[in-house]
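Here is a typical protein record:
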Amino acid sequence: MTPTRRTLLGAALGGAAVAAVGLPAIAATAAAWQLKWSPSARTNGLGAFETLEDDRAGSHPAASPHIYATGDNWRFNMHTVDRDTSTDRQRHEVTGLRNGSGSNYLKWTEGQTWRVTYSMYIPSSLKATTTFTHIMQMKQPGTGTSPIVVQSLRRVNGVQTIELKLFEGDILVGRTNLEPLHNKWIDVDFQIKVGNGSAGSVRWILKNGSTTVVDASRTGVDTFLADRVRPKWGIYRSLGDTSGSLQDCYLLLSNMRGYQLV
C-alpha cells in the first residue's frame, strides 16, 4: 500500500473553544484530555522514552553520553564533530512515550488524538540553519521513513525562526522569530489527530511566559503513513548549513506530559 501524506491540526481537541490567531474559533467537544504520560527526568531518566539514538555511529565516544537526565531536565549535547550513520548530518534523539519497562509504551494509532506539552530551553548556541535543524519530529517507526511533522529551527531570508511544518508538501503551520526565545524557557503544546488522507489535523502553540507567540492549526490533512505515529525529540541537523551557524550546542527539555483525547 502506498504511504499517504500529511497536514496539520485545527480541531481544538477538548476543553473550551479557542480562537486561534487568523483562524476561526474551534467548537468545544464533550471529549476530554486524559493524562497518559508524566515522566520525571530525576526519577525516570532516559527510561521515559521508547528508544534512544545517542551517537549511533560511534563518532564521538569521548563525549558520551550525549543525551542524559540532569536534575529535572533532559539534556541533548551536540558537537560539531558528531556524525550520524549518514555522515552529512548529526542526530541525538529520543523517541516515544514509555511507561515502565518492556513494551509498555504508548502507541499513537489511526483515528486517535494525542497531545504533548513540555518546556524547552534553546540556548543561543543552538541556531537556526539554512538547511534542516529539527528539534521535534512525528514519524512512523522504522528505518527509512519520512517525517510526518517537524518542528525546526530555520533561517528565512537571513532571520532565525522556529517553525512547524507538515513534511510532505512542505506545508507551513506556523513560524515565529527564534532569537527572542533564545536563552529562556518556552512552553510547547502540540496536538495531533492521527488521520489518513484528509482525516488528520494538528495544532501548535508556543508560549514565552504568559505570552502566546504562536497558536496555529491545520485541519483536513494527512498525519498517518502506516502502523503508528511516534514522536521524537532532540537535535537532528544537516551539515549543509551555509550561514556559519553550526557550533557546539545543547537543548534542554522538562515537564514533559502526554495526553490522549478520550
